[in-house]
Prior knowledge:
About 75% of the residues lie in helices and about 0% in strands. The protein is an all-alpha fold. The protein has two domains: about 90 residues, Orthogonal Bundle (Hypothetical Protein Yqey, Chain: A, domain1), CATH 1.10.1510; about 50 residues, Arc Repressor Mutant, subunit A (Orthogonal Bundle). α3 packs antiparallel against α4, α5 packs across α7 and α6 packs antiparallel against α7. The radius of gyration is 18 Å and the shape is globular. It starts with a helix and ends with a helix.
Amino acid sequence: MALKDIINEDIKDAMKSKNQSALTALRELKSMILLEETKEGGNGILSEADEIAIITKAIKQRKESYEMFHTQGRAEQAAEQQAVIAIMEKYLPKQLSAEEAEAKIKAIIESTGATSIKDMGKVMGQATKELAGQVDNKLVSELVKKLLA
């Protein structure tokens, strides 16, 4: 079943259970997916990688909002953002631990033949493709720097 269909079903469930934070998160995801599908020059069909990228972008935006609310001492709004983030994360693939990510990055470094920090771009390009949605890109960047240094 396509992600859009799963989200539509979950929206119905959230409406029935009157779960407002879930409803907000799911409607936002649905909106972002529809915008991407109807974007000019698109074919109206999203790949799984495109869907993961959309969800990751939405989560990143919410995390930035959470940080802003948290630093301003607005605990209620920060808690709302955290609840929405938790709901959105359910639609991402299983997240890898730091150790698992490091092992995969080591394999990528070997396969690309990277030997120094000058090869970081080559490794990052491959790593972001292979680990999309499974590891935060910030962590990927830190691990690549550490392993190539």
